[in-house]
Amino acid sequence: MLLKSRRLVGYNLLFLAFGAFALLIIVVTSVLYSRRTQDYAAEALRAARLDALLLKYQSALVDAETALRGYQLTQREDYLEPYANAIAEIEQDAAAIQTNIASFAQAPIPAAETAELVRLGDRKLAIVRAGLEAAKAGRLDPDVLKRTSDEGKDAMDAVRAKVSAFQQIAENVRVRQADNMREAASTLTTLIALGVGMILTLTTAATLFLLRHMRELNEAREALVEVNANLEERVQARTEGVMRANDELQRYAYIVSHDLRAPLVNIMGFVSELETATGLLTRHMGADRSDAALAQVYEAADVDIPEALGFIRSSMMRMDNLINEILKLSRAGRKVLEPSALRTDELIQGCIDSIRQRFDDADASVTINGKLPHIVSDRAALEQIFSNLLDNAAKYLVDNRPGRIEVRGVTRGGYAIFEIEDNGRGVAAGDQERIFELFRRAGVQDRPGDGIGLAHTRALARRLGGDVTVTSDGVSGTTFTVIIARDLGALMRSEKT
Asked: Are residues 145 and 174 in the same domain?
């Protein structure tokens, strides 16, 4: 019987060795394709960032021209503040665009084309500066203004054409890299399916072999019962963890397209099958821990294989997160704006009601101070702006004092100005501009976030003809100021002429 038991152990060790080899192939393949997918994702992310920078650069040029028009009409110095801000942003954005394009693995845009865009932007700025100098000197002759306007339009049209060409290149890069990721995921799924099939076949063979010789293991039955009981608890705990992981994966799967997410779901399912198969094999082989060979089997089943499976799962989650970020960025700035007459007090109250539970959980009061202006703008964009800022205010309230959030608004010239003030933790002076950058967060990272919300909020506000700024003493609260055009429809029509 001892000889047969040893033979039994030897056969099962052989089966396990084949299974471990198949698992090794899966792990190595997963690592290679995961890294390749990360490279694809990084390239797509760089393209998305270039698209956002181009949009920001064009918007800054429009802001400078808008400020000039306001000053020409009113001769008020406060209209020059957006001009000064736009000048600084244009220089920064031009440098950022050149740096971003240079970082592409395979540069899709020649350096000469990039330099041409900067030259066109500089020409537009020169025309704006000339118009401003003429206005300050009192040279407001209609013929001069018309000539300046015509030259400015021609220059802006040239910038828009160049930006549009660059954006199309960036879009092509994103699409190509998405296709590459889909192909890599499909290949990885096929390879894993083959490996899982091999492991399942070996597991089935080992199980049948064990069942056939079960009567020869009567002397070790009591020990097996005890071991199986312990293993059952571990398998149950692991099964529950796998179920939770699968539930979370499905929630993510509904966010993005089925074609891109289906391979990830399949991979996680295969991991669950591997864990179940490993537990089944271990239960039937756990008779004698004193045997050195059997002890190695237990170590492989209890440590090595779960560790490898955990590595596969973490790699898949990283790939999933990268896809999420790319999708968020790709949607930014692509929606067509639809201006309509809006009562901002009703719109903001709706935003407050939609996240009321968050305010209640934080024991915070939210008030609208005074009558808010009526405007013509894009409803969806405004709802996203105010929802993001209100949610951000609630997120960073201080636990040891009652939360207070106040919303107020006024009109000034052709703009509507809204302020969202809270008494939260505040934002340090050095971080007040940094928080609007993509994937940048400030302060203690004890709240969930991805560093996209405020960057997207500012981009939306600039598309609505304005901007978002922040002021804070860094300790006792923060005020976000949202500036948008009172009549977005009129602004869009003026930009087309």
From this structure: yes
Same domain, 330 and 349: no
Return the CATH number at 382. Answer: 3.30.565.10
Based on the domain organization, do 151 and 257 belong to the same domain?
Answer: yes
Shared-domain flag, residues 384 and 328: no
| Residue where a domain terminates, one of 334, 359, 394 | 334
296 and 375 in a single domain? The answer is: no
Q: What is the pTM of this model?
A: 0.40
Write the pLDDT tens digit of every residue in 101-135: 777 666 567 777 777 888 888 787 778 777 777 77
- The last residue of one of the domains, among 334, 365, 397, is 334
Per-residue pLDDT tens over the stretch 20-71:
676 677 777 777 766 777 777 777 777 788 778 888 888 878 877 787 777 7
Q: What amino acid is encoded at 350 in this protein?
A: G
List of long-range contacts for 300-305, beta carbons under 8 Å, 24+ apart: 300/16, 300/20, 301/16, 302/234, 304/20, 305/20, 305/23, 305/274, 305/278
Which residues constitute the domain of residue 474?
339-496
Environment class of residue 352 by beta-carbon count within 10 Å: exposed (0-12), middle (13-18) or buried (19+)?
A: buried
479 with 492, same domain?
yes
424 and 278 belong to one structural domain: no
